Every structure is written in C-alpha cells, then in structure tokens.
Amino acid sequence: MTVDASGLESARPLLERSGTAERVAAILRQYITDGVFAPGERLSEPVISSALGVSRNTLRESFQLLAHERLAVHELNRGVFVRELTTEDIEDLYVVRRATECGALRRAAELSAVDLSQVEAALRDGRVAAAAEDWPSVGTASIHFHQALADLAGSERLSATMRQVLAETRLFFVLNENTREFYEPFLDCHEQILRDLRRGRFDAAEAALDRYLRDAEARLLELSTPAAGSGSPGTPR
Fold first, then answer.
1. Which residues of 90-116 are buried (b: 16+ CB within 10 A; e: fewer)?
2. pTM, whole model, 2 decimals?
3. How far apart are the C-alpha atoms of 29 and 183, rounded to whole Å?
4. CB 146 within 8 A of CB 187
5. Is the CA virtual torsion 107, 108, 112, 115 positive or negative?
6. Tens digits of per-residue pLDDT, 80-123?
7. Extended beta strands in 21-93, E state
8. Which InterPro entries does the entry mention (predicted)?
C-alpha cells in the first residue's frame, strides 16, 4: 500500500523559508501523528517529492531523520515504510510518556503562570469530534491535548521529545480502535485533568494523568496481541 500524498501540496508554503530535510521531516511527522500516513504504508519518493516540490536527495535525508526517530523503516529493494510497533515498543513508549508528561506538569507547577488555552482547545476539538462521532479526529485531538500538556513546561527540548513520542504512539492508535468505547473514557479523563489545572491543583492533575496513561497502556497492550509484534516493521497490513 502506498500513501495518498494528494494533500501535501497544501504544505508547500511551509517550505518557502527553508526547504531543508528537517522541515520536510517535520511535515511528514505531522502527517504520521495525525494518522494520515498509517503504519505499513509505503512512503513513495516520487509521489512525495513531487507533492512537496523537493528533490529526491532532500526527501531521502528526511526519511533518514524519520528512521532515526523510529517512525520509518527502510526495507531493501522495497522502499521506505511507516513503521509498525511491537508490544515492547508500547511498554517503552508509556515509560517515556509518564516521565515526560508528568514531569512537565511538575515543572509547570513551579512557574508563576501557565497558559492553558491550547489544552482547552484540544479538549474542545475532541468533544466536537465526538459529538460528530468522528473517532479518528477524537484521536488526533487527544494527541494534541497531550502535546499541549507537555508544552506547559515551557521547554522546547521536552516539547520536541513529546512530539516524537506521540508520533510513535499514533502509529499504534491508527491500527486499532476508532470507536466511542475506546476514546470516550479518555475524553472524560482529559476533562478531569484540565479541571484540576484550572484550579491550580497540579498534584491532582499529575495523579489523574498518571492513571490515564496506565489505563491507556493497559488498553493498548490488550489490543496488541493480534495487532502488533507479529510481523516485521513496514510490512503492509
């Protein structure tokens, strides 16, 4: 299966100031995070380079960056594919997520003020998508919610780490449950976390976030037996 890159032309303005491989990788990373490019899909050089208006060499450099981030994998004589995760990946990702996100809230508690607008916007987007029963978009809003939580720390390095980790997390989400049963309980947890943050109860928000992440990990591991760990990364499903 080859990715549908028809929407990438709209991202060309993002390259006007800098047509570097890093910028191309950032665009492709966002497409992976948003679930547009799914695990197992082939990242076609001619299709993507044409859509973005960049050279093959630049695109190959961006692929190398994505491979370093464990978001893509190169298979000899087959091409570059969006990576698929194993159960071990899920367990490790959630170790990192608990350390990063909970640490971000502890750091935010030390600041004189925090801007919750992006956290609120992500939750609002999730509720709107849920009302429309657009569950993939609820998943995207959830990713944005957790990125916004990490951003509260005011650290670009922490935020960059979170962007990579969430992009990896999304690799598993898009192959599994896109249903009310899967996402709705998490929306309620988001509401609780935001409510505690608005009241300045950072300890309570961190505790709620920790429970959320442990529940999410357990749910994904439950789903992982048929969905992950059974094939080599990049094998189309």
1. beebbeebbebbbebbebbbeeeebeb
2. 0.73
3. 23
4. no
5. positive
6. 999 888 889 999 999 999 999 999 999 999 999 999 999 999 99
7. 72-75, 79-82
8. GntR_C (IPR011711), TF_FadR/GntR_C (IPR008920), Tscrpt_reg_HTH_GntR (IPR000524), WH-like_DNA-bd_sf (IPR036388), WH_DNA-bd_sf (IPR036390)
